[in-house]
Amino acid sequence: MCLRNFTSLRFVLAVGLVFGSCAATAPAFAAQDPVIDSRLSCALPTNCVNSRTSSGLSPLRFNGTAAQGLALLQATLASFPEATFLLKDDRTVEAVFTTPAGFRDNVLFLLDPQQSLIDFKSHSVFGLYDFGKNRSRMEALTARFADAAAKSK
After folding, report:
1. How many domains does the chain have?
2. Integer distance in angstroms from the first to the last C-alpha of the chain?
């Protein structure tokens, strides 16, 4: 019984450290990039990644028109069987990725036609921690998008 309480205490302390450091870094993020669209902000870095922070993930880059970039994004998303489109317009795509266990992650893509970039945010709908799933998925999506963009030149 004491061991279980000690494990619970370690978990509570670890969560406190994570959330304490998140709260301290949130204002610094806003000050670093005041132009960032608020829809790309991550409330919890433990279950969210985006292409606008120092997380090491870059926006998707495309050549050609905005319509060509959007078509390339749609083709890339179609290569993921777990992806479902929710909303699409000329500058925004939302998708939901559902894991085999039923967990859902929302992904938002914002197209910047002037810079030929597509920024993204991927976050878990449920839970405080995603065990790196959003990062690994967006790394895979970025690689597939880059391959498709290189082939379309």
Report:
1. 2
2. 63
Chain centroid offset of residue 114 CA: 22
- Looking at the chain, the whole-number percentage of residues with pLDDT higher than 70 is 76
8 Å CB contact between 78 and 144: no
Q: Within its chain, how far is the Cα of 113 from the centroid?
A: 20
| Angle of the 133-151 helix axis to the 66-78 helix axis, nearest 10 | 120
- Looking at the fold, whether 49 and 26 belong to one and the same domain comes out as no
Cα–Cα dist 137/124, whole Å: 12
Residue 45, domain extent? 38-151
Torsion sign, CA atoms 10, 12, 18, 20: negative
Q: Tell me the one-letter amino acid at 38.
A: S
DSSP 57: P
Residue pLDDT, tens place only, 16-62: 433 343 333 333 333 334 456 889 999 888 999 999 886 789 999 99
For 56-60, which contacts have Cβ atoms below 8 Å and span 24 or more sequence positions? 57/120, 57/135, 57/138, 57/139, 57/142, 58/142, 59/112, 59/117, 59/118, 59/119, 59/120, 60/109, 60/117, 60/118, 60/120, 60/142, 60/145, 60/146, 60/149
The dihedrals phi and psi of 127, each to the nearest 5 degrees, come to 100, 155
